[in-house]
Amino acid sequence: xxxxxxxxxxxxxxxxxxxxxxxxxxxxxxxxxFDGTLAPIVADPELARAHPxxxxxxxxxxxxxxxxxxxxxRPAEVAVRNGGFADVPGLEHLVILGHYGAERWDxxxxxxxxxxxxxxxxxxxxxxPGLLEGxxxxxxxxxxxxxxxxxxxxxxxxxxxxxxxPLTDLAARHGLIVExxxxxxxxxxxxxxxxxxxxxxxxxxxxxxVLYGGDDLGDLPAYAAVDTLRVDGTPGLLxxxxxxxxxxxxxxxxxxxxxPEGVVELLAALARSIG
Length: 275
Hints:
Blueprint: H1 12-23, E1 28-32, H2 54-61, E2 67-71, H3 76-83, E3 95-98, E4 103-106, E5 111-113, H4 119-132, E6 138-141, E7 146-149, H5 156-173, E8 177-181, E9 184-188, H6 194-205, E10 209-214, H7 220-231, E11 236-241, H8 247-252, E12 255-257, H9 259-274
Parallel strand pairs: 1-2, 1-10, 2-3, 10-11, 11-12
Antiparallel strand pairs: 3-4, 4-5, 6-7, 7-9, 8-9
Helix pairs in contact: 2-9, 4-5, 6-7
């Protein structure tokens, strides 16, 4: 993509999405992944930092659109720190949706908010002792989840196999799911994902169009959410922060750019095109 020009989406839906964004930017939601999209991938994730020109591009675009949201699997506070998003002029209304939307940081307040524990977790805590009596298992309380470990049972695998169905039934009765592991069954709330986070935020702000940019398989739920929004009448544009490592994302994208450098160029071009 030219440093000064917007790319032409390869799909009709993508062209409609870009046209809607440019026609009414004040109702547009710009939503972006962090690692691999705004920040280059590095060997040590703790050292990941936003592209040097990302903050400038975002600050130039943000006042011209309805909202900018960063949706990431990282804790919100980590994304804020690694992105350098706090106290940036022009980004006063930036929102970080961390832990796939389970946490939210608002630039206006500088605070992280999160929902309270799922009530089903308290309910299964009450019922687990009776269900597990004599099984030789032990329960790890994780606050927002509980995990039943069978490693200490006389026959760990047999205990795991025997408990899987009743624990699944218990979880389902209280709105939870069971996530199996190595001789452990974790009962936790249904997992949020980037698609759930994107859809909810788009509804919250009444988005008239949505751009989502990502780079990895964890971004596919957000792509699916944009597809659903399109069907429901909200135009959308899917951007892939290009990598040959994740071909499924590239194949579904309306626009493929050259990694975080390309994302920054796209954001800057949008800001210039909106005027």
